Amino acid sequence: MNIRRMIVGEPLPTNLAMHQRLSKLKALAVFSSDALSSSTYATEAILLVLIAAGTGALGISMWIALGIAALMVVVAFSYFQTIHAYPNGGGAYIVSKENLGKMPGLTAAASLLIDYILTVAVSVSAGVAALTSAFPVFAPFRVEIALVIVAFITIINMRGVKESGTFFAIPTYLFIIGMILMIVVGVINVLTGNVVPVPHPPEEVLREEMTALSGMTLFLLFRAFAAGCTALTGIEAISNGIPAFKVPESRNAGQTLITMVVLLCTMFVGITFLANQYQVVAVHHAETTVLSQIARAIFGEGFLFYYLQIATLLILSLAANTAYADFPRLASLISRDRYLPHQLTNLGDRLVFSNGIFTLSVLAGILIILFGAREHNLLPLYAVGVFLSFTLSQSGMVIHWLKERHHEGFKPNRTWRFHIGINAFGAVCTFVVLIILMVTKFVEGAWLVIVAIPILVLLFIKIHHHYDNVAASLTLDGLEPSPIAERYKIYSDRNHVRVVVLMNSLNRCSLQALEYALRMSDNVRVCTIEVEPASVKRLQERWESWDLSIPLDIVPSEYREIGQPLIKYLHKLDEESTDKIPTVVVLPEFVVFHWWERLLHNQSSVAIRAALYHDQIARGRGRPVINVPYRIGDELYEPIVVKQIPTPVFGENGAAEPAVNPETK
User: Fold this and answer.
1) What DSSP assignment string belongs to 496-562?
2) Lowest mean pLDDT among 51-65, 261-275, 466-480, 493-507
3) What is the per-residue pLDDT for 609?
4) In terms of CATH, what superfamily is 2-405+418-465?
């Protein structure tokens, strides 16, 4: 635990959540690093396709870059509208689900989750490529270096959003300064005629890159455009992370989005322009990147060249942080809708979704190993999911604006028409690009994503079906509220030992445990640990509506843990007890049929038993802990006290004797 605290930091109390929000300066570094870093390899991706038609075709890259930049502006403006229409975040998932339906929403969610996993793998791999371009001696250790970077980013994000924002701001702004300086100096060289073309690769290398094509074809042009569209990856990140901004969230997020797009367009178009002017030729498996060749031609082998290479390494490696900021948030939203395991909604010690962060790291690490930490092997997989989510999001926004026609007093003014027009145009553009990507990159690896998305959607549905079954087994529907404690006063054979029933919600499982406790003792209390205030509020409301006549103790948990607050609560009850008998704990626990179904639940009962066990060892005193299992999928439990309690039979001395219900004997 001490080592974990040293690495991750001391836990943060829940009441500091608002203070962990990001300013625009830090948010630009956290949410824009992915988009900004894509400018370092998007131009190279275009050139790697065009070289197949010969070096004479490379000049077309400038026109392709301008077309992609125009598409960036359209998509960014569309997301600007999304930010203000859906200020709680969620991006394409929430927009698609609310306006297009469940299946489009789940498709957008699957696309985004796959995109974020690929973001980490591509960004880190590209960062390693920048390192090996400047220091070729590290090339044999690409995978190992990439995994170390992933582990490092994971630790930083586990320390909290605000702390990671502070850390990542430095390399992001160092990169922006270096890129703008290179573009400015390069443009000045072009205007003054001080351009020395970059030497071309050897003839035999060029012949291997060129195909039998006699010139540029429409298919090759589409392939180059599709390859360059990787520059748009990350644009949606801000719309997914709006709750991470300081108040006013939507306004700050919108301004950050505009700043990001201006910088991205400037850098992407600027690099492509300089690549044309310096006659840079890109070939597969080259020792140096296109950006490295341009920087060397402009700055030479001096300090500024190595400064830009190191800044590029940092931004590419840390661009994965955009995924670390958005993947856990999106996963928590999907989990809250019961399409992913509930554990993904849990906030960790540092007020971040630590389970989501860890999951992302593991999946990205697997991809890095499988693809040898080479970003160009991963890029064909990358853009399909991005543009699928773009298309669904923009289409959903069109429906959103159309729904406004049904509002009272609605008038289709010029602003409304402009909004719906922009989103409709964005939907058409991104859909066309999506088709191009699917056709041109299908055999290059895009088929993996095309297959993975429906598989992930089916997994969502399977998980949701399980949670529906659990809810059906636990529901209180069909039961009438009843003052349980009052009904049991007729039983005189109960003892007076203090019993605590642990609950986080009122359902058939917890009612079964409560009834068991009431049969055993006339001194029963119910305890809930306030890990999620919303859940506790729902429990209180239901408790009042059922009028159970049993004390409900709400134990605050400053750091969102269960074990320690529960132990302190039990110690306090033990000290208050006059007979010095340890308080008995009754633990309701539902049981599922399959091992994989257990993975979909928090297993809080395991953590509670472990805490109680260690407390018993530390104090040298045993505490009775009674588990009351409830099997999910079996016949619904019918609490006896909710049914008609039999009329008590009075003995000869006038004392009431407990009657037996023949149906429940």
Assistant:
1) ---EEEE-SS-SHHHHHHHHHHHHHBS-EEEEEEESSHHHHHHHHHHHHHHT--S-EEEEE-TTS-S
2) 51-65
3) 84
4) Amino acid/polyamine transporter I (1.20.1740.10)
